[in-house]
Amino acid sequence: MLQMLADQCAGALERVHAEQALRETQRRFRDLFENSPDAIFVEDLDGTVLDSNLAACVLHGMTRDQLIGKNAADDLSPPAWREAARSDFQKLVAGKLSLVEGESLTVSGHAIPVEVRAARIEYGGKPALLLHVRDITERHAAAAALQSSECCSAPSGQIPWTG
Fold this sequence. Notes:
- The protein is of the alpha+beta class.
- The protein has helices at 2-34, 54-60, 64-67, 72-75, 82-94, 137-152; strands spanning 39-44, 49-52, 99-105, 111-123, 126-135.
- Helices cover 47% and strands 25% of the residues.
- The protein has a five-stranded antiparallel β-sheet with strand order 2-1-5-4-3, sandwiched between helices.
- The protein is elongated.
């Protein structure tokens, strides 16, 4: 009788430890998701936002509840980029691409250059895409500044005219 009681207690204790470990793992992954400096979206294979992190909210100037249910190509891309966004998204879904550049649209209508990295995942028991979206405004500005300085610099060995 005591052995049976001890076995039941041991089984209950194992379940408690397993539940604690699961909660800790879920908390850790939620912290990683929420605290990423890049915008993270989980989208179904049609491009509908299923989940997003705080950086995604900041990027678009929307709350998480406002982002959920939006379609990335139709609602979160500037009109001039929508056709390319749809095409690129289908290539991401098919695994033909894992990185694309484009533009994201803020709630105020401002277009932001972005780099999007994608990976296929399972979310809620269904296939989905995990998208890491990085604002590359600074990268574009640095490239433009470099190009501007290169086109205006003097040939090697000559001192530029300063007027």
